[in-house]
Amino acid sequence: CATIPPLTRNSHHHTMAAEESKGDACCPAGSHPELILDESRQESLAGKVVTLSSGLVTYQVPAPDADCKKAIVLIYDVHGFSGGRIKGVCDAIAAQGFHVVMPDFYGESAGINDKGGFSSPEGVAWLKTY
Q1: For residue range 60-113, what is the model confidence (pLDDT) as tens digits?
Q2: Predicted TM-score (pTM) of this structure
Q3: Which DSSP string corresponds to the chain?
Q4: 49: exposed, middle or buried (C-beta count within 10 Å: 0-12, 13-18, 19+)?
């Protein structure tokens, strides 16, 4: 099983600041997983979508070592359960030696873009519910 290495805040902040000046603050160079959208990687995703007996939908990725007792519960951002690269991020974390579970807290695999985006009245109303 793996241990989580300490984050180097200064190096991340520097990278983000440099990218923000280029107008690409979302996904700076060197981001994981290789800036490939999840929807383009459906066949190569390491995890699977599992519905629990409670009805909660989750994305689950096993650790490479099945005997590992360490797990991470990943919580996505406003782009939701199926937005962007979040399942790829789960896969990358699991590859480092952790079981990863990501619950679909918003439900319906929804994210802000499914609700009209940040500037739409529907999107703003949806954000206020969370």
Answers
A1: 999 989 898 999 999 998 888 888 788 988 998 999 999 999 999 988 888 888
A2: 0.72
A3: ---PPPP-HHHHHHHHHHHHHTT--SS-TT-TTTT--GGG-GGG-SSEEEE-TTS-EEEEE--SSTT---EEE----TT-TTSTTHHHHHHHHHHTT-EEEEE-SSSTT--GGGGT-TTSHHHHHHHHT-
A4: middle
CB 7 within 8 A of CB 1: no
In angstroms, the CA 21 to CA 1 distance is 38
Please write the tens of the pLDDT for every residue from 114-127: 899 999 999 999 98
The bridge status of strand 48-51 relative to strand 57-61 is: antiparallel
The pLDDT assigned to 53 comes to 97
Contacts of 52 (CB under 8 A, 6+ apart): 58
For residue 37, which amino acid is it?
L
Q: Are 32 and 15 in contact (CB under 8 A)?
A: no
Q: How do 99-103 and 71-73 pair as beta strands? A: parallel
